[in-house]
Amino acid sequence: MRKSQVSPMRESFLTGQDENKQYSNSRVGRASxxxxxxxxxxxxxxxxxxxxxxxxxxxxxxEESVDCFAEITTKAAALLDAEKCFLFIKDENxxxxxxxxxxxxxxxxxxxxxxxxxIAGTILSEPTGYTANKAHQSDRWSEELDELPGFVxxxxxxxxxxxxxxxxxxxxxxxxxxxxxxxxxSPADSQFARIIALQLGHAIIHYKQQELIAxxxxxxxxxxxxxxxxxxxxxxxxxxxxxxNRKAVSFSPNPRATSQMKIAKQPSLFDARRSSxxxxxxxxxxxxxxQSEEDLVMHAIDIFDERGLFSRFSIPMTTFVNFxxxxxxxxxxxxxxxxxxxxxxxxxxxxxxxxxCRADEYLESFNTLSILVAALAHDLGHDGYNNAFxxxxxxxxxxxxxxxxxxENYSAAYLFRILRKQENNIFARLDAEEMTKMRTRLIDMIxxxxxxxxxxxxxxxxxxxxxxxxxxxLLSSMILHVSDVSxxxxxxxxxxxxAYAVQKEFFRQGDKERELGITQTPxxxxxxxxxxxxxxxxxxxxxxxxxxxxxDFLPLVEAKCIKSIQLNRAFWHNMLHRGILKTDDIISxxxxxxxxxxFILPAIEGSGASECEDEEGNDHAVxxxxxxxxxxxxxxxxxxxxxxxxxxxxxxxxxxxxxELGYTDHGRDSIAKPRRSFRYSMVESSGGCLRRAxxxxxxxxxxxxxxxxxxxxxxxxLFAFDLNAAVGEKESDGVFDQVTLVVLVIFxxxxxxxxxxxxxxxxxxxxxxxxxxxxxxxxxxxLVQMGPELxxxxxxxxxxxxxxxxxxxRAGRLxxxxxxxxxxxxxxxxxxALERLTxxxxxxxxxxxxxxxxxxxxxSVIGRRMTExxxxxxxxxxxxxxxxxxxxxxxYTPDARQFQLDTIAEFPExxxxxxxxxxxxxxxxxxxxxxxxxxxxRIDALRATEILMLNSxxxxxxxxxxxxxxxxxxxxxxxxxxxxxxxxLLATMGLLFSxxxxxxxxxxxxxxxxxxxxxxxxxxxxxxxxxxxxxxESTETDMLAQAITKMAALLQVGFGSAxxxxxxxxxxxxxxxxxxxxxxxxxxxxxxxxxRDFTFATEGLQQDVMIFVxxxxxxxHTHVVESGGHPNxxxxxxxxxxxxxxxxxxxxxxxxxxxxxxxxALNCVQNIIHxxxxxxxxxxxxxxxxxxxxxxxxxxxxxxKVAMGFGLHKGWAIEGAIGSKLKIxxxxxxxxxxxxxxxxxxxxxxxxxxxxxxxxxxxxSGSLQSTCRRCDKVIFKGSTEPMVIYVQDTEPLxxxxxxxxxxxxxxxxxxxxxxxxxxxxxxxxxxxxxxCSERELVQREVYDALFxxxxxxxxxxxxxxxxxWMEKFPGDPVVICMVNHLSKYNFHCPESWPGFxxxxxx
Length: 1402
What we know:
Structural class: alpha+beta
Pfam families: GAF, Guanylate_cyc, Ion_trans, PDEase_I
Subcellular location: Membrane
Strand content: 5-15%
Cofactor: a divalent metal cation
Keywords: cGMP, Hydrolase, Membrane, Metal-binding, Transmembrane, Transmembrane helix
EC number: 3.1.4.-
Distance between the termini: 77 Å
Radius of gyration: 47 Å
Number of helices: 53
Strand order of the largest sheet: 3-2-1-6-5-4
Oligomer: single chain
Number of strands: 21
């Protein structure tokens, strides 16, 4: 058992400290703790049992089963020495106590007993335990319930199990008959029972929470899986970086691309009719109340047109106008709020969320269509009374829809009744499968707008974000619901209009409720009008949380909407504070402000009353209509999951903490984790503790504070002894010794940490550090000399020995400090040089992604080895120099004092002694036979090292002691000078040697190493942006670095993006060259392009054809790279272009659909076509690049126009090496690459420059889809599935006026007879009127009808549309090609026609 979990609890129990810590908020807890402490001080406790009771393993793995109950009660009975123990839990539903036991036959049963009878039931109402010696005689005893067969209960002890978080008793644990010869349970037993009850309380609460969470999770998963389409899952792994601080990522191609031609959506042909404000400028301040009925219809048309829905789903304009008209008529105009204005406003906000907040990056065209249609129809038929009103009045709608989402079900049914009419069916071109999916999606979205489904929808969305498994259908529902409640997110003037309308509609329902005599709904009684309070509550409970949740997925919602919500809430709160509660008063207040021309929102005063308090300060949680009554309360957390659990009418207790028992529950996440065995947890904990300890020690060793500390300690070890000898006094030696001891401890700690944390440390520097550390021992006087006094000769000798040892050890300490200084200096110099180089590069180039900015150098292996080698050699040289100086420092000058002392010893005359004493002022003691002198005061003031004792060589009785403190001070200053000089010398030499080696060898090698390393990580790194060094003389390392850069650039150019993995694998692997690595499957957009009439150009240009091809390639490749793509194969006159999709962290798009990549690819192709058209003829294209050409070919080529054909397709391919180890090409193998090639080949047949597959077209944004139209439905040779191919109209249709040479023949082919004229009279006139319109969108409706007739096998009708279309647009190559094809069958569809055109050309 871990003592850290037991000791605090044991101490609080035994000492009485913090006795109210856990239960300060509980009357029951305070009483039980005080009583327990008073009793426990009078009794003795078995500490081992106490630890067992507090063990977290006591009730670990609790569950409601016979085995678990038996195990727990057996352990509890053993702790109290009781014969029997029972555990009862309260059933809140049945109001009974239950337990799990095994009957006489061994069957597991759930036994119950009532809570109003029996001794156990009475304990439920007790704040503390209950003890009785003769329980069967107690008034609480029930023979029927409490008697056990064959068992007599004498002593009895029970304790209630409390849930202190909710202040209610949840069970009882009881003990019967004290064993061991005791007649009753002691106070200590009572406290053990109390601890056991607390432990069981935690276990039971956690078990209940787990069951509750499991039930909620199942409900949430079931709700989330509702109509979940696996194929519409949003991919979080590649297109998004999703976390709590997720930022919007925008695709930005190379800035140079901005100067090129951009293909934008052509203006809608309703521009002449539409208001002067374009669709892109109709933002959050768009006010539907200021628009006419016709303007609203035009607004819907503009939105659908801008999203490309008319062309994508072949929606005829007439049908759409009829549909919108039916929708308008379906709304009750008498309803103040739920009218068609609200429907169009919701559609507008949905559009803004998709465009301004970039939700369309995750939505396909199908989702966009469903959202906008559901927005228009979500409140169809709404009569202005909510669902609760219909339910309470038992209306026909409530009966029809069984009281479930009454109005929402009615609106969905109303929508599909409208769509049943052929003239309103905008989904007519959807097939059966798509129509089923659309119907299901629309019903789901409309039902999700029910206010009662608000929290469940938030839960499903939150769950999808947490699990990173969000469907487009769920996102669509969320967008619609957010738009439905978005009024407070609009600018104040618009938001207030909707607030007034809501208030008016509420009052209308309130009046009706009063008339019918039913309870009036809050906020709907006009006699208690309080619009500000209603708006504040609505914002706090619904609007702000749901917008905040959506902002977690779409970060732009934060900037576009949240601020407006906060401002509107501030306005309504201010009105509430001012007491302006009625609508008329608010309008008057605003008019007053406007008349003063100073409409300023007054400051919000913090001292005002809360918006949820009445005049008496009472808090009233008034529910919002359709929202659960407790939805606005703070349940301890503000996330959507908490709100969802409220909507399911459940309540999860808050995290339960009991610091007294050393137990903490950190919430539901910790509860849901599976329990593991205690032993496994201890083993895992031990390993984790060791790893954490190692990381802690490493961090401490590398911390700046410890480095500074060791640096200062090293300085002290170098200079402190000499400084103390030079300027210190004897009295300061004690302090010096203590500080030196501390420094020694610091060195030993550093040595130990290096041994533990630094691998390979036991080398040269280890021994230097060890010698330097141990040498400090000789400088601590109280460790060296323990007893002798000053006069002892051995003391002086010992002091000299210590001084000599210190001098010998100084070289080791010197090496330690110089090593630290060198590393720090080298690091600082390298960092300074790198910063200077980076700044220089930034001044020379404005690019932000230069390689130098990306390289962060670290010490290389060769750099580290060379630096250490140089340092070692310098240190060894200096140390050897010091040793040689010390060894040769021999003083041959004889000491005169020794000679005089020997003379006195030989001739002991008084005159000689007095003369000797007079000639030496520094004598402090003299001893000779018959003569004694001693200056005790001076002796006491001197250190042992400052006293020199000389002994006569003649006899041992003549001695003299001298004061050499001045000599010692001189030597100390000299030693300081030598130490400083050696330190400076060693540092200078080390830095100079290391700097030259680092500058000329190590740093260039490290740059080359990091270049290769970054290439292995990012093979497409732009190495050409590295600036060359400005040096008059290039070194060998410069040559190698430039060669590596050039070779890497050649690899990139040669292999391209398809060979990136080959480069990375071979550069990162130190083994043999292996270019034949396995292929990788990628998703990409493939573009195949071909130069028109290349054979003719080759024959004419001859050797100059390379110039011609390469110039075209430069144009194409430049645009491709700028658009985020990669050029691949160059096959003479053809090129393969690739735009990779979903490439993990390197993806170039913020949404998982990566629509911007599709748009960028299409714009890139159109830019190439545009540039080639600007080139004109081949002569003007090549200018002066051509050499001599024969006049005949020159005149022939003069009419040759430079042009290319393109095919765009999206699919998968295998990226890798093709060939052998002798020669490889990095490319893509896939049938989808072949499809792109065949699309390009088909451009010649359809006489267009570009053809797109359906797969590519579906990835485009709506604005570009609206510029495209269907060309044909074909199946290519080698394919099994037909596809619709598309062309893009980069110019208005009016530009298609140049007829072909056979124009008259084509018109003749499509002429019809009088019978056909009569049969299709109305159709012909309608088509002619549409073609005469100046609005291109109306004209395109004729083309859609033409193409649909072709697919519907009605080729006779198609012939009529072709004739009318060619009369209006004679230069349309698509229709011309269709006429040529259908004329082969005389415009009669064969019975065997499969519904598509088979193309046989490759």
